[in-house]
Amino acid sequence: MPAVSLSDQIVRVLREAQRVVVLTGAGVSAESGVPSFRDKQTGLWEKFDAAELATPSAFHRDPALVWGWYEWRRMLVLRAEPNPAHRAIAVMAEHVPRLTLITQNVDDLHERAGSRQLLHLHGELARPYCESCRQPYGLPVGIPQLPAHGTRIQPPRCAACGGRVRPGVVWFGESLPDREWLAAVEATQHCDLFLSVGTSSLVQPAAGLMHMATRAAAVTVQINPNPTDVDHLFAYAVRGRAGAVLAALVSQTWNLPYAN
User: Fold this and answer.
1) Is the pLDDT of residue 47 over 70?
2) pLDDT grade, residue 10 (50/70/90)?
3) Residues of the chain with CATH 3.40.50.1220
4) Which entry of 86, 122, 211, 232 is annotated as an active-site residue?
5) Quick one: pLDDT at residue 218?
6) Are 112 and 135 in contact (CB under 8 A)?
7) Using one digit for the tens of pLDDT, what is the confidence trace for 132-189?
8) Rounded to an integer, what distance in angstroms lies between the CA atom of residue 189 and that of residue 209?
9) Is residue 122 annotated as part of the catalytic site, yes or no?
10) What's residue 43's pLDDT?
11) Which residue intervals of the chain bear CATH 3.30.1600.10?
């Protein structure tokens, strides 16, 4: 695995790239203080298994509990701010002929940092919809009070059909949205640089994008603070926090002021 000192080669590849794909995971949002549902839960949520809350069966069994948990998560996101990684990716998109941003995160921090077009593979917290007719549900504007840990909140009802509104995320056992997935595959199969940032690259099917990029002869780069089980599959595995590495990469590539 090349060391970080080889970053000059990554800079050259980025500077010359025509089609770039950036895949972001929970590690990017974590630098803004947004916990992954795989992280240890806090407060009264400690007694619940987050992975079990993120299922259709959990919502059908106890909709108020699941909706309350997702509302708590949504309020955390509303209080968070984009970090240097989010901002660096937005700047990158202004300098690359074609950049496709694919995220496994369900927050809107990329959008708030200035990214205009991105693919949310796992849905969006801010876009709940009716589980019966799939009509989008408009959330109140503003930042409500953060619900207490473990608070049960009954889901709202759809104005169109009266059905129950559900979180706008992809749960375990559900398929990724077709449009987003097909667009992600198309972009990856034709990219010349693939950046994987803040993700273990182990969760399928998104993990398969790295293999598609390799088959397309793209240069593949993984950015993570810690080693992963797939480091050896990337051309470059860069150690460091996403914000610091991406900000430095953008700064060096286009001779821009370093913003952290």
Assistant:
1) no
2) very high
3) 1-34+82-123+176-260
4) 122
5) 97
6) no
7) 999 999 988 766 666 655 678 999 999 999 999 999 999 999 999 999 999 999 999 9
8) 8
9) yes
10) 47
11) 35-79+129-166
Q: Which CATH architecture has domain 35-79+129-166?
A: 2-Layer Sandwich (3.30)
Mean pLDDT of the chain: 89
Domain 1-34+82-123+176-260 annotated CATH 3.40.50.1220: yes
Kindly report the length of the chain. Answer: 260
Strand order in the sheet with 193-197: 118-120, 98-103, 19-24, 193-197, 219-224, 236-239
